[in-house]
User: Which sequence fits this backbone?
């Protein structure tokens, strides 16, 4: 093997690792506010609001005007390109408002999924062209981390070896380019919850996918201490008739991560997928109470699970903005507690009762 | 992907994970007493003792009949095939003597190296033929773990991707077969210290090798909680002019491990390679004091570094039994302290312990 050609200098590594640690500092997680124009259309139509640039700006303003209470529970916010250059009603750029709260600014950099020919409806994700130049510009414009979402699905024949390999590879290329530009890459290999498969099946697939992702990151010389992982929790498919407790989800999730995610990765920030706000918090809490040793921070990178109530309270009305912001702050604080295993649930008995529901991990 | 077909039942997993944890519990490590006939020849020649079966038996008898308190430092002993069936002078089987002390018995399973054509003198390891039947027999005969040593070297164009891939694959096949037969596989991908490369290069290579090993183990559906890893520490090549402290060795080693070894692996038991007894202990101690996250036990699986002084004290004479046992016990206790980060270096430990045990291109 040829001599190694270091991809990053010691200073570059330190900068990346410091950023990553700031985002997942104890009790903090990420607000994923990077919905594309198309995704925002779905959210806004559910509350009867027209999908205009101004409405999207007004909505993000509701979230970003949250007071200092969010400082202790939000470590990073992921922006969509449009939002990165928007300002609030007083002309203050959103980026500045967020940075002034000591929160790290991130940017979605992928350009959506494209089909993989010859597969059963599987996809890869595009966005590598000119990515280095885009990252350099985003870094100048205030972003210190990025996010790229790959999508895999479980069915009789999927995910196929090609889908796993190709998505892992594209995530590694993206991560490599980000780090060259001083940006911490959040690596997101989402396995969708669509389907009727059980918890074990999801765990098996998640382990295979994550093993491939970390092999690809190693092959591409990515500096793990300067990355974050944004995986799905291990859950049954939406159409699975068996119900599982948060403790079972936690045990399956932590077991899968322990078998695949090297301890050098500073933090795992779960996506919420189709979970309700409360489910996402209860599951995160159970994960943080799981009796298995967990060498990385285990926190949130939630979109819908942080914003559903806020969106509903806002409904496009300026008069509702204050109440809507309160809803967001409430979920942020709850998830900040869950990220430390300190959330007592909305009325549910906490710690001791739940502990006994963890099934020993050799059963997974 | 096809539905998964569980390789092991929960009961099988439980048995394997309990064996692995017993071996590395509370600062215990492994005595690698599995030198082949040829290798014992090298050892005995140094102390001018003839390499007969009886001499080999006598030396092993002295080690294994040491006081039971050795079980606080030694959790497992690896035997060579011949030794598994040998007895002490009273007719007690060695394996029973060890078991009565609460020590887990292991067996070397590989059958030596074979060249990889088209490479720069690189090798793979043989021993897969009939391995399942051999494992089943060894399990009946009292073994609970196996060991298989793959060898990689740093040099011009080495290790090549073929050598890495082939050795990782062979290790994974061996591990799979072991687990099917209730044996915990110790996975040993040794990157030998021959050469003049520096510490950084060894770290780079070790990371690449370990990433490939864990990807292969995942591909072969190995239950990581029921395995142990036996890697080299990250050190400079033996002919490297630059000298490094135990702390530098420790930092490079733990960095490499935490970027590649999943937290699910219960223990990492280093090989001593060409290190002197004292260096092997000092380095292990520094490793356990390293401030990086270390979710696995970090212990020892030493051959030469546990036996050099004992061999010198013995000199082939029965009258030296007590001195031999004391020398061995002293190293066992020292390494167990080091495995807890509590070793205090006590002045001169005799010439044999600091003498470098390096043998060029070491093979079994």
Assistant:
């Amino acid at each position: 093997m040829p001599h190694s050609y270091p991809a990053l200098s010691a200073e570059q590594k330190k900068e990346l690792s410091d950023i990553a640690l700031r985002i997942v500092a104890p009790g903090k997680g990420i607000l994923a506010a990077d919905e594309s124009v198309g995704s925002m259309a779905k959210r806004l139509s559910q509350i009867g609001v027209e999908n205009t640039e101004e409405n999207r700006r007004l909505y993000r303003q509701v979230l970003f005007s949250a007071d200092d209470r969010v400082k202790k529970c939000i470590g990073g916010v992921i922006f969509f390109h449009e939002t990165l250059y928007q300002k609030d009603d007083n002309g203050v750029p959103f980026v500045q408002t967020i940075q002034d709260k000591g929160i790290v600014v991130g940017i979605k950099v992928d350009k959506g999924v494209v089909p993989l020919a010859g597969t059963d409806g599987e996809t890869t994700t595009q966005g590598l062209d000119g990515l280095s130049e885009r990252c350099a510009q985003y870094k100048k414009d205030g972003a210190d981390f990025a996010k790229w979402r790959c999508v895999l699905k479980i069915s009789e024949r999927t995910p196929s070896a090609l889908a796993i390999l190709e998505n892992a590879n594209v995530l590694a290329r993206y991560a490599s380019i980000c780090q060259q530009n001083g940006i911490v890459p959040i690596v997101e290999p989402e396995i969708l919850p669509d389907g009727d498969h059980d918890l074990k099946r999801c765990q098996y697939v998640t382990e295979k996918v994550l093993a491939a992702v970390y092999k690809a990151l190693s092959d591409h010389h990515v500096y793990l201490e300067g990355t974050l992982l944004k995986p799905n929790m291990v859950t049954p498919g939406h159409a699975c008739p068996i119900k599982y407790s948060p403790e079972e989800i936690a045990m399956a999730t932590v077991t899968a991560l322990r078998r695949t995610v090297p301890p050098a990765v500073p933090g795992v920030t779960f996506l919420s997928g189709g979970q309700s706000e409360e489910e996402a918090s209860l599951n995160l809490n159970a994960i943080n109470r799981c009796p298995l040793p967990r060498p990385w921070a285990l926190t949130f990178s939630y979109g819908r699970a942080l914003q559903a109530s806020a969106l509903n309270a806002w409904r496009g009305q300026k008069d509702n903005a204050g109440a809507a912001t309160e809803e967001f702050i409430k979920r942020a604080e709850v998830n900040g507690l869950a990220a430390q295993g300190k959330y007592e649930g909305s009325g549910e008995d906490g710690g001791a009762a739940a502990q006994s529901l963890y099934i020993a991990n050799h059963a997974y | 992907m096809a539905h998964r077909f569980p390789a092991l039942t929960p009961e099988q997993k439980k048995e394997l994970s309990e064996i692995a944890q017993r071996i590395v519990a509370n600062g215990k490590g492994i005595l690698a007493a599995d030198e082949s006939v040829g290798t014992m020849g090298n050892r005995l020649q140094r102390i001018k003792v003839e390499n007969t079966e009886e001499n080999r038996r006598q030396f092993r008898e002295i080690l294994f009949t040491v006081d039971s308190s050795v079980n606080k430092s030694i959790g497992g002993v690896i035997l060579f095939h011949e030794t598994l069936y040998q007895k002490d002078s009273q007719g007690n089987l060695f394996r029973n003597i060890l078991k009565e002390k609460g020590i887990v018995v292991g067996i070397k399973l590989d059958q030596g190296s074979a060249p990889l054509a088209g490479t720069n003198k690189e090798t793979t390891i043989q021993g897969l033929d009939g391995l399942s039947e051999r494992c089943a027999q060894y399990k009946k005969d009292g073994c609970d773990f196996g060991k298989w040593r793959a060898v990689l070297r740093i040099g011009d164009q080495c290790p090549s991707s073929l050598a890495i891939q082939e050795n990782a694959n062979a290790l994974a096949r061996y591990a799979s077969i072991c687990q099917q037969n209730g044996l915990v596989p110790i996975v040993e991908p040794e990157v030998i210290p021959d050469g003049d490369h520096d510490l950084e290069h060894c770290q780079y290579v070790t990371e690449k090798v370990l990433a490939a090993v864990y990807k292969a183990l995942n591909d072969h559906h190995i239950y990581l909680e029921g395995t142990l890893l036996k890697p080299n520490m990250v050190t400079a090549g033996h002919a490297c002019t630059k000298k490094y402290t135990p702390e530098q060795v420790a930092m490079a080693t733990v960095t490499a491990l935490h970027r590649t070894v999943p937290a699910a692996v219960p223990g990492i038991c280093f090989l001593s390679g060409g290190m002197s007894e004292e260096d092997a202990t000092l380095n292990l101690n520094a490793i356990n004091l390293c401030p990086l996250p270390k979710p696995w036990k970090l212990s020892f699986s030493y051959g030469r570094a546990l036996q050099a002084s004992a061999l010198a004290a013995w000199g082939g004479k029965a009258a030296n039994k007590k001195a031999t046992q004391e020398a061995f016990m002293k190293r066992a206790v020292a390494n167990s302290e080091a495995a807890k980060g509590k070793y205090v270096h006590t002045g001169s430990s005799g010439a044999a312990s600091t003498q470098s045990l390096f043998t060029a291109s070491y093979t079994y």
Remarks:
- Strands of chain B lie at 29-33, 74-79, 104-108, 113-115, 123-125, 145-152, 184-191, 228-229, 267-270, 297-302.
- Chain B touches chain A at residues 1-4, 10, 13-14, 17, 157-161, 200-201, 204-205, 207-208, 211-212, 214-215, 218-219, 224-225, 255, 258-264, 293-295 (CB under 8 Å).
- The mean pLDDT of chain B is 93.
